[in-house]
Specification:
Helix content: 40-55%
Number of domains: 2
Number of helices: 16
Strand content: 5-15%
Strand order of the largest sheet: 9-8-7-10-11-12
CATH topology of the largest domain: Rossmann fold
Radius of gyration: 21 Å
CATH superfamily of the largest domain: Glycogen Phosphorylase B
Distance between the termini: 27 Å
CATH class of the largest domain: Alpha Beta
Largest sheet: 6 strands, parallel
Structural class: alpha/beta
């Protein structure tokens, strides 16, 4: 969604763009139809995936190299770890003048063991040398890169994510639709979690908090929105701990405005995060947010001013914060919405990216 919005916006600023994407895993949602919706020049590489596969990766890299040799781009801008590695290698071999990579999250902890993390840090240091500049979505991600000596400070810039938040800002018009679909009355508290069902998102922690709340007499419901490899395991866990009838798994959804319109609290229990879309969307929709204080989350939430931050391993603190969030004042909701509308506006991100590209082009003698 990010690269589709960005590519479309850059076209409107006079840039000629080509978007290349790999195939999503079968357990995750697919947003590639946005390329057609936005009228983008788009290439889908089925052999480019998140898993390590030497033959497929070599083939994908060669295809990227051939595409770059054919189209002669002035700038190649890569996103995510695998595409970022293959794309930058191909761009370097194709002698692309400007190579930019965006780190969307804190990638050095929470995903692998310490041994693998050390290898990834080494690889990223090498790839950073092949990059003209490195972008990060938050100051905390930039600090992590500096702490791990990925690149010198003058090579790393912060460019916050931008989203089309109008649909969430005005989603109150859809209040009641999602609850009617689920058969939940408007006076029943509804606590939600939105995100991929993968280990880093730590939905188990969310379910254990739900279990504790139900044991203490909470008369509400819980909804988990998203798909992923842990879907069956998490559904089984909810049944095992006796809250299966109170937790609804919706699968992957695109109508998030309808969902936020009916949530009383959004809970994010991730072990690590960059800039989580769900938190920004919920804040724009005036939904109180409770989140673990990890990664780039504190860059978005000022605890008890625009939301609630908790430690990542204390289920009792999480429960207490959810109860506090259920009584959130309009002052906090106003401040949260104002913050994301100001700092994570889509048009602002597109303008800043276009300005950044033009600066890089001028430095290398291009007429812009």
């Amino acid at each position: 969604m990010h690269v589709a919005h960005l590519s479309s916006g850059l076209m409107q600023k006079g840039f000629e763009t080509t978007l290349v994407s790999g195939r999503q895993a079968d357990t995750e949602g697919d947003m590639t139809d946005l390329a057609e919706e936005y009228g983008l020049r788009f290439h889908l590489y089925n052999n480019l995936g998140a898993r390590l596969s030497p033959l497929n990766d070599l083939y994908a890299c060669s295809r990227l190299w051939r595409l770059m040799r054919l189209t002669s781009p002035s700038i190649v801008h890569t996103h995510t770890a695998k595409a970022g590695a293959l794309g930058r290698i191909a761009a370097k071999l194709a002698k692309v003048p400007i190579i930019v990579h965006t780190f969307h999250g804190h990638v050095f902890s929470g995903y692998w063991g310490s041994g693998i993390s050390k290898i990834i840090i080494l690889v990223e240091r090498i790839l950073a040398r092949a990059s003209t500049v490195i972008l990060t979505v938050s100051e905390s991600v930039r600090n992590e890169l500096l702490q791990n000596n990925i690149a010198p400070p003058e090579k790393i810039y912060v460019l916050p994510l931008g989203l089309d938040l109008n649909i969430y800002k005005n989603c109150s018009a859809k209040t009641g639709q999602f609850r009617r679909e689920l058969g939940i009355e408007k006076n029943v508290p509804l606590i939600g979690n939105v995100g991929r069902l993968v280990p880093i998102k730590n939905h188990r922690h969310f379910l254990m908090a739900a279990h504790l709340m139900v044991q203490s007499g909470f008369d509400g419901r819980f909804v988990i929105v998203g798909s992923g490899q842990l879907a069956s395991e998490l559904q089984k866990l909810s049944i095992e701990i006796g809250i299966g009838d109170l937790v609804i798994f919706t699968g992957w959804r695109r109508d998030l405005d309808r969902i936020y319109a009916d949530l009383d609290v959004l809970v994010n229990t991730s072990i690590n995060e960059g800039t989580p879309y769900a938190i920004i969307e919920a804040m724009a929709a005036r939904v109180p947010v409770v989140a673990t204080s990890v990664g780039g989350v504190p860059d978005i939430i000022n605890s008890e001013m625009t939301g609630y931050l908790v430690g990542g391993d204390d289920v009792n603190s999480l429960v207490d914060a959810i109860y506090c969030a259920l009584k959130t004042s309009d002052v906090i909701l106003d401040a949260a919405q104002s913050h994301v509308l100001e700092h994570h506006d889509l048009e602002r991100m597109i303008n800043r990216t276009a300005t950044f590209y033009n600066q890089l082009l001028k430095e290398r003698g291009y007429v812009v």
